[in-house]
Structures
1.
Amino acid sequence: MTVHAKSLSTPVRTDLASALKTTRSRQKDLEQLSPFELKDFLINLAKDREKTSTAIMLNAGRGNPNWIATAPRDAFFLLGHFAMSEARRVYDRGIMAGMPQKPGIAGRLHGFLDENRKAAGADFLRGVHEYGVQKGFDPDAWIHELVDSIIGDNYPVPDRMLVHAEQVVHDYLMKEMCDGRPPRGKFDLFAVEGGTAAMCYIFDSLQQNGLLKQGDKVALFLPTFTPYIEISHLERFQFRIVPINASSLRADGTHNWHYPPEEIAKLADPRIKMAVTVNPSNPPSVAFNALEMRQIVGIIRKNPDLILVTDDVYGTFVPNFRSLMAEVPANTICVYSFSKNFGCTGWRLGVIAIHEDNRMDRRIGNLPGKERKRLHERYGSLTLEPEKLKLIDRMVADSRDVALNHTAGLSLPQQVQMAFFALSHLLDPKDSYKHLTMKIVRDRRDALWRGLGIPLPPEDKERAWYYVELDFMVWAQNAYGDKFCDYMRKNYEPVDFLFRLAEKSGVVLMDGGGFGGPPWSIRVSLANLNEDDYANIGQAMVDAAKEYVAAWQAGEKVRSGPPRGIVPQLGVGGQPAPSDRKVASNQPVPEPVAAPARGRGKTAARTSKVRVAEAQPPASAKKAVKKSAKKAAKKAAKKAAKKAAKKAAKKAVKKRA
C-alpha cells in the first residue's frame, strides 16, 4: 500500500458544531472581560435572535429578583402621606411647608391610621409603632425619626446610622444572620449604598488604617462574586490571592460546592491578613456547614489576627442560616445587602456590621508609633482623641475622604425603607415572606432540572438555590468520557456554550469561570424569570450540548475506521469504492465538504470542518501547491513594489511643492 493509501485511513478533520457569529478568537478576547460585561454581549446576541424568530429572550444572567416585598413599601408610601400632613401642619404656603415637629407626633399618627385604617400599609405602620414601644423607644422620638427622615429635610445624624433604625436593623441581623442566637454584646452598623459600597469602604479603610498593605496575602473563598477578585488585583492593592476552593466532590464526580478541610486549612498561614467569603456562595449558593464553620473557628484561635469579611446577602434563603459574625464576631466584618431578599436592587440598601469588641480596633491601637501618628493626623479634625475612633467610624469618615465627614451617611429616606424591610421580618413570627422566597427559587430549580432531564442533586440543607452553578465538563466526563472532554477543550472556548445558547436559543447565562469557578461552569440565576422559563432554559441547554455531542460522534465514526469496501474521504464521510478504481488514487485531496445549511441567511445553522491531522498528498498535488505558492508570492511582491513606488513619487511631489 502506498503512503497516500495509508493516509486515507487516518482522519484529518474533526466535525464541529454549527458555526456562530462570534468566532473562537473573538470569544478568547471577550473571556478577558468580567462576566458582568461579557453578559452584555450575550444579551445583544439574544436580542438579535428575538428579531429573527418567535423565541423570547430569557435572561437568567444577572441576579435581579423579579419579586418585591409589598408590605414595607405600602407602609413607606403611606407614612409619606402622613409626613406631608405633618409638614403642612407646621405651616402651609401651598408650594412650601414646614418641618415636622416631634411633640405629640406618635398620637397624631394613631389618629391618621384610624382615619385610614383600610389603606394599604396601615396595619404595618401600627406594628412599626408598637415594635418601637416594646423596645423601650420614646414613641414621639421613634415616629419623628421616621417622619422627618422620610421627608429628607436634614442631614443624616448620626452620620453612621439613625439611632432607632440602627437598633431595628440590628435586631433583623441577629434574627436572620445569627439564627436568633446572637453572640454576646452588640454590633455597630454603618448604613451604606448597597453591598457594593460596603466592599469599597471596607477595602479602603483597612488599607488606610494599616491593617492591609499593598501586596499582602488575601484568601478568597472561591467561587465568589467577581468584584472581590477584581478589586484585589487593582494597582492600589495588588493582593496576592490565596484561593480557598470549593473543590469537594460527591462519589459520582459532581460538585457539592463545599470546602475540603485541606482548603480551609490554608487559613492557618499567619501571612494571610484577610479572608473574604460570600456565604452562601455566589454562584453555587451553598453556605458553610457545621464542619466547615468549626474548622474556621478553630483556625481563628491559632491565627487571631486574621480578618474575616463575610458577604451574607443570600443568607435568608438558607433555613436556620448562621453567619461567621455569629461564630467569630471579634474577627468578622459582615456585609449585608437587602437587595435580593426584598427585591430592592434599585434602592441601594446595605449595612456593614462590626462587633463593638473586635480585633481590628485593638490592632489599630497597637500599630507602630509612626503609623499611629499618621492616623492621628488623618482623623485629627474629627475628634480630639482620634486614637479612640473605632474602625467603623473611620470607615464613615473615609467614605467621604475624611474632610467631608460631616456630610457622610446614607440618605434618610433610604434608611427608613431599610428599617421597614427589616421590620417586615421582625413583625412576621411565621416567617411567611421568607418561606415564600425560598419556595419560589426551589420551584424554579425543579423546573430547570426537568428541562435538563437529569435527577436533582442530593438534598443539602445549606443550599440557598438563588443561583445554580453547573459544570459542563463534569457532565461531559460522566456522560461521554475523556475523549469527548478532549474534543471540547481542543476545539472550543469554555464560553462557546454561552454564546451558542444566546445566539441559537435567546438564553443568557453567565460564565462561572469568571467567578473563580471551574472554567467550563455556568451560572444560572433562579431569581429573575418565571418558573416555566427555567424548564425552557434547561431544554435549550440540552439542545446546545447535543449539538456538540453529535459533531463529536460524527468525527468518531470516521476514526473508528471504514466498513469493508468504503473509502474514508478525509473526514467528509464514506463513499462506495468503485471496483475499477484503486484505493491509492492519484487524485488531489478533496476539499472539505460542509453540510447543507438549514434555512436562509447568515443565521442558518451549518457544519464546519477543521483539519486535525493533515495527510501527505501525492506528488502531483505537492507540485501543484508549490507552483501555486510561487505564483502567489511573485504577484504579492509585484503589488508591494508598485505600491511603494507610487508612495515615493507622491512624497517627492509634495516635497517639491
Note: The domain at 155-427 is CATH 3.40.640.10 (Aspartate Aminotransferase; domain 2).
2.
Amino acid sequence: MRRCVPWFRLMCGGTSLLRDGFDAHAAPPTGSPSFKQVVEEKIDKESKALKRIVCYPHRFMTRPVLPVPTSQILSPPFMSSLMELNVLATDLHCLSFSAPKAHWDAAVILIKGSLDETEYEAWVNPSVPGYDDRNAVAPMYGMWENCISCGTATAWVVRPQRITCSGYDEHGNQKVQALDGMRARCLMHELDHLMGKSIFHQAMGPEFVVSSVAMAQRHLWPANFPSAEAYVTIPGQFFDYVQNKTLVPPGMEWWYAQNTRQEFGSERIGH
C-alpha cells in the first residue's frame, strides 16, 4: 500500500539512519561519507525513482494486467523485471508495490508486513476469493490509504481484516496463504492495481477522498466528517469495525510513535 502509503515513506534517509544508530554529530570515519552525504544520496535516489512511476489515469492503471504464464516465471526477462521492481520499491521505501506502477504489464505484487522487514514477498498471479465483494460478511478494518500513483490523494478504504490468497512465488512454486493486518491490506491495495482500479474506486464516496493538505488540517474538519469512524482514525491507524475502536497495525508501532502526533487517541465511537 503505497499500499504504498506516503506516510510510510517517511521512513527515508535520515529517519532510518537515526533509527539504526547513526550519530549525526560524530565525525565520519576516514573515507566514509558524512551523514549529510548519505541522506542526500538517498533523497536523490528516491527522486530518480519517482520519475519512473506510473500515475493514475495512465493506461497501465486503468485496465487489468496480463497474467504471467507459469512457464515464464523463471525466464531471464521475468527475473530481470522482478529485480528491477524490487529495486524501485526499495528506493521508494514502499511497504508494497505492483508491476503496473513500473510500466510492467504483469500480475506481480511485492509486499511487506512491516517496515522492519528487509525483503519483499513476491506474489505472481495472486487471487483472493471474493475480491471486491462489498457485501461480504467479514471483520473489516477501515484505514486512510494513499498511493504513490495517485498523487497527494488519501482515501478512506474498508478492507477485510484477513484474507486467503493463492498464487505463485518468484520461483514458480504455487502457494496459498492466510494474510492479516497490514500484509492483507497491502496485497489487496496492489491487487486493485492489477485489476485496473485504485483507491479512488474503493473509496465509499467522493467525500471519502481528501488531499494530503486536508489531512494535515483534520482539526478543522466538521465533526464526524466524512464518517464517525474515519474522523477518529488518523493516518497509520486501523479502525476495527468489530471492536469499534482504532488501533495501530502490528509491526508499525515504531513508525507510528516517531511520525504521528496522536490527536484523538484510541477512541470508541459513541463514548
Note: The beta strands are 96-98, 108-111, 121-127, 140-146, 153-160, 162-168, 174-180, 209-211, 238-240, 245-247.
3.
Amino acid sequence: MALKVVTEAPTVWNYLNGLVNLYKPAGVTIQQVRNTVVHNLCRDLNQLEVRPSLQRVVIEDGFESKLVVRKVEDLSDNLLVVGPRYQPDDVKCRFCANHGRFTSGVTVVGINNGSNLAYRLQQNRPLRVYRVTGFLGKATETHFAESRVTARATISHIGSEKIGRLLASIQASHQRKMFELSGIDVQSQAAYELACEGTIRPADNRQPMIYGIRLAEYRKPFFTIEVHAINETEAYLGELIHEIGINLKSCAHCTSIRCIRHGHFLLEDSLLRKDWNLQNIISAMAHSNKLIHQHPDMLQQDNSALQGFDKKD
C-alpha cells in the first residue's frame, strides 16, 4: 500500500488523538512541557493547508432594478481578523503522572481525545521505574541538590554491600505493608488468594509503595538506586534518599531522578525535546496505540494485582 502525503490540516487534526511518550528534561515543569508541545502542534498545523474563510450570501442591486445574489468572503472569519486557525486553547492535553521539576524521563501525555485514555491510565496506577541518584556526605533542606546544605558527615565506612543490605530491608518492609494497605485482613482467605496472584497495589492511591529497590551503581560519594513504585512523588523519592543516608550512619541528598518506565512505556521510545513536532508526535501516537492494544490491562485491570510486573525490566 502506497503512502500518501497529507497536507490538509483538518485531516491531520482528526488523527491527533491519543497517548504520546515524551522525554521530560530535568529543570522543566510539567506546565512548561505542555506549553511547548501545544505551541509546536499549533505551529505545524497552521503551516499546513488550513480551511478557507467562510462565505456569506450578499444581495445587491443590479442593472434595471434587479437584485443580484452572490457569495463573498466573510471577513469575520478571515485569518487577518481571527488569527491562526489553530490556537493553543484548541488542544487538550493531560499528563498521566505529575512529575516534579527535578524529575526527568518518561512522561505519558494524552492529547485531545487521548485525554480520556490518560485519565484511565492514571487511575489504573501502573508501575513506574526510576533511577534515583544520591550524594553521600551532605544533607540539604529539601533533600535536593539546589537547596542549602544543612549537615555533613563522613562516608568512609559505607560500602556497596552495606547499601545493598539496607535496600533489601526497605523492600522487605514495604512488601509486608502491601497487605496492610490493601484493605484486607492478612490472616484471611482473601489475603492468601491475592498473594497467589502476585504483587498487589494498596487501596489508598495516596500511599507510596515500593515493590522493588536495588543498587544500580555506586561511585563514592554518588550512588544510584533503581526503584519500582506506585503512588510515589518527587518529594517522596528525595526523602527516601535522605532516609537511606541516615540509616547508613551518615547523610545524603538527591541529585537526580529519572523515570525509565511507566507501565509498558519505555525510555527508549520516548520523544526527545527536539522531536516534539507534529509528525513525530503522530507517529508516536501510532506506537502507543499498538502498546495499548497489546496490553489492555494498562487501562483496566480485573483485579488488584499488578499485571506484567517484572523487576528485571
Note: The longest strand covers residues 209-219.
